[in-house]
């Protein structure tokens, strides 16, 4: 009976945050109050739930153990209703103050980064992992900016990022950087993905299709997008200082993805991938081998493949 009890707690908290505090008795038939507190503190979705303990157990040791296990407050039985209401009000105010920075993290970081921070905490540094990196930007963006008003450019970028974010996150990727008309996305970090290469390529195909569908539907001229994708080892983590940091990935795989994105201008194909990404594809995908390309900073030439429905026009 123990698992159904904690499962019900998870479901209640996940249900549109309808549960915002818990009144817990120490003496219960299925689990002791101490066991419930242990389960709550071990679950990232439940550990911030304010818990007020009521108990007839006497002794400072019991109170200390409850507080150490995460209880917000402790009231001895019989409970004074006036005091209980005051403690509940205070716990809800503390929760509101705690939720404010958490809400900002969810707004300015992706859900994957927020989940990684909730599970592992924040620490500068990184860990080595295998994943796929994507770089993308709009072709001829400088000329486009010169031909329209700043308001139109902002509207264009907002639409661009909204559609790109939907496509990337819809395939498990994480938007890592947005600089002007360019973006960097990671598949497989900070949380692992079973098939990061497939996910990145599916997202890239969707990005190109979605953006121009929206523009044509609005009576605007199509815009070309160049996307480079590379797979391999990288170091993912948080860089900066203790007061200002960002989630990022570094390594040769990241540099290669950037080189491939820039090479789409020369190759005249919207999506270019490296051999590791090509080898990692599990879903049948139309590709074309373009041969080995010598990139600046690379000791050996890199096998490049084009993805999708032919060259740019």
Give a written overview of the molecule:
The chain is α/β, with parallel strands linked by helices and 313 residues long. The chain folds into two domains: 107 residues, Rossmann fold; 188 residues, Alpha-Beta Plaits (2-Layer Sandwich). The chain has ten helices and eleven strands. The strands form two sheets. Strands 4, 5, 6, 7, 8, 9, 10 and 11 form an eight-stranded mixed beta sheet that branches. Helix 7 runs antiparallel to helix 8. The N and C termini lie far apart (64 Å). The relative contact order is 0.10. About 4% of the residues have low confidence.
Question: Layout of helices and strands, plus pairs?
Answer:
Elements: H1 2-14, E1 22-25, H2 33-42, E2 51-55, H3 60-68, E3 73-76, H4 81-108, H5 111-120, E4 125-138, H6 141-146, H7 150-170, E5 174-179, E6 182-187, H8 196-217, E7 225-240, E8 245-250, H9 252-267, E9 271-274, H10 275-280, E10 287-293, E11 302-307
Parallel strand pairs: 1-2, 2-3, 7-9
Antiparallel strand pairs: 4-6, 4-7, 5-6, 7-8, 9-11, 10-11
Helix pairs in contact: 7-8
Keywords:
eight-stranded mixed sheet; 2 domains; Rossmann fold; elongated; three-stranded parallel sheet; alpha/beta; 313 residues; Alpha-Beta Plaits
